[in-house]
Amino acid sequence: KAGIWAEVKAALGDIPHADDAATLKLKSRDFFWFSPILKPQLEHCRADLVVAPRNRDEVIRAASVAARLRVPITVRAGGTGNYGQAVPLEGGMLLDVSALDRTLWVKPGAGRFEAGARLLDMDRGLFAEGQEVRLYPSTRKQATIGGLIAGGAGGAGSCTWGQISDPGAVLALQVVTVEESPRIVELRGPDVLKVLHAYGVNGVITETEIPLAPRHDWAERIVAFPDLAAAARFGQAFTEADGIAKRLVSIHEPRIPAAIKRLKPYAPDGAAIAILMVSEPQAEACEAIAAAHGGTVTFRRTAEAARAAAFDGHGAIAPLYEYTWNHTTLHMLKVDPTITYLQLRFPPGRNLDLVAWVGERFRDEIWLHLEFQRRFGRVTNSALPIVKFTSPERLYAIVDELNANEVAVSDPHSYALDDAGWKRVDSGAAQFKSLADPHGLMNPGKLRAWPPAEAAE
Ligand code: FAD
After folding, report:
1. Model confidence over 101-110: pLDDT tens digits?
2. Would residue 438 count as lying in a domain?
3. Total domains present in the chain
4. d(CA 229, ligand 1 centre) in Å
5. How far is the CA of 79 from the centre of ligand 1 (A)?
6. Of 75, 197, 371, which is best to mutate to test ligand 1, by the most ligand atoms within 8 angstroms of its C-beta?
């Protein structure tokens, strides 16, 4: 084994690489430790070598070395994934693409970026152009556009633009294959689904072309409500208010702000809260809807101050999106390391009734926060609830009951791509893997059975 790595290093030549224990440990991890089930399964996994190409040519050379010497290759970018997506289960080469971070071009309504570009840096650059990225995860600071496309779902902006898998959310992707002589493949339109949310098992994304939106001045508000039901009704009504430009509608039941020190002052008397980003000139209209639903504004930050918090880290409180989506879990884990979380999707039309049912049925085990989003012309909410963890058996009993009652659970306690939509839709992802990764070297172990039985016979 040692021999092969000496050969790999010699073949890589001047492409930056490292194999000291500290780097291998640091780069072999992501945020899988949010899950008490994944933690013991993944914490011992280590890459044998971290390779950090500086440009596409070096990606091609590294991919060729992996193919020629038949070593596993796992792509990593910001390393903020939640399910061990970038953890090298079988060791091998860890391809850190975060240095591929250039903006290639920008025009009104679209831009092309290298895959390792960080979402916050992209918006910093787009600011002067009067444009912005349409949606970003709450990990905007560290997460990359390639990582969002290969492993993420949605975030701030989803209340207006839906999710990263929706038609038109990704315009084109450039992918490098892992073969002795790697090819550069351009996927456009619906073809992007072949590699979207595929955890990097079927090609290294090197360039991404995405739609952009005209930039707004996003002001921040926190609004307190007497209870979760009132806050949720407001969340629905505000997200449905098509005339108001908005970026974030996140609703938290009272126990969450009561536990998070930074939020507590804005949730007086055990209030539920709405965490909002709204176009500054329309903040007044937003506040009127909140008041009509019994809300009281407890926090106001101008767009300029909110931008300084996001771009420069200024201000007493972090950008508000860093308290929402899966950041809520991060803050709650600091308070109580024994909790965990789930990922729930509520069907449009029935979402508020089902939110009430979940809150009532699992009162002692689930703390809800709702992320409102607009998808396919309808408004609904997802949720990443805080869950009291007692045992895997109890966790999966809760999952089964939710699934049986129209609340669809995406399991965040599994690293298997099969559990996250692989081949669920006819995306051509599996066929593309045969082409882009003929030796089955990419992120091995994430697919339960590869090659598929029929191909192996
Ligand atoms: P990584 O973690 O480095 O990689 C993710 C996956 O993509 C891996 O399988 C990796 O192999 C693959 N990959 C990365 N780059 C490439 C590439 N160039 N080519 C091929 N494959 C590639 N997610 C959301 O969707 N919304 C949220 O609001 C959100 N909030 C979060 C909050 C917290 C506190 C945490 C810890 C995570 C959160 N996430 C969220 C998950 C994660 O931050 C996002 O999905 C993020 O976009 C991942 O980007 P990354 O650059 O860190 O990817």
Report:
1. 999 999 999 9
2. no
3. 2
4. 31
5. 6
6. 75
